[in-house]
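Milestone M4 deliverable, item 7.
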Amino acid sequence: MGQTETEPGNTAYGRKPFRRSASHFTDRITADGADGWPVAAGRYRLVVSRACPWASRAVISRRLLGLEEALPMAIVDPIQDDRSWRFTLDPDGRDPVLGIRYLSEAYDARERDYPGGVSVPAVVDAASGRLVTNDYQQLTLDLATEWRALHRPGAPDLYPADQRDAMDELMATIGRDLNNGVYKAGFATEQEEYERACLALFRCWERIAQRLTDHRYLMGDTLTEADIRLFTTLVRFDVVYHGHFKCNRWKLAEDPVLWAYARDLFQTPGFGDTVDFDHIKRHYYQVHTGINPTRIVALGPDLADWLTPHHRERLGGRPFGDGTPPGPVPAGEEVGAAGRP
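Output delivered:
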């Protein structure tokens, strides 16, 4: 997530129609190093915002696959300024490895006057300080496949070869109508534009809920990349998208199937323990000044509801397939008390 408009900085948010910028830096980090970037433990730094749903995909994938040591992570301040993502959560306002104050410095080290703005997730070559990729769509697929040699024992197969065609089709629909749909509705500047996006969103919602009525996960009995992509939108829905983005035909908590599914995932190691509701709320309410000029952050809803029983285990399934859950959250990566239920 980053600047999506031609106008720089936060003043654009909510004042122009939403347009998701294509990733400009699409180099891949692969087992064979075909793009010049071979998979190597400790070579790269994953820069994320816990507020951003696209960055959160990478955070969840990294944790489920046990790549925490192989791919160290930097977390930016959820509040951007007009130079975008900042390392103000770190001592002296600099990333301790890259030594930079703004993620844009890694972009500039790679290419000047690049299009598309500064977005997360971003992978930076630690030695040179140069951006490698900001291709959020491909990044998590590569973590699941190209980084296999560095996966933890018992890591799940998040992108199984025999399901990829069906997964790709489903993820494209979710991406268009849900992941991007909430932004199309929230940043709409015309009534017709808003209604079109909102109606498409909830039509997709109903189809997904029907699919999950008798399947514990989107692709059947085990977790996949598709569940990660849906979860990062659902977990933000009632806290920001329902009110802030006017996606208010109904709440997640009012849908018995998707609310139970979302709680099931939240309570699964690797999902809820990466979610920072404080970062999410402060980012949306304080950065999107075109929508919320007062920058007042809403108090609700009650986060404790995320920990209530979901009963989805009655559908059976094995979340990690033949594998095992990830271990404890590494020291220094725990979500602060303000961001947890």
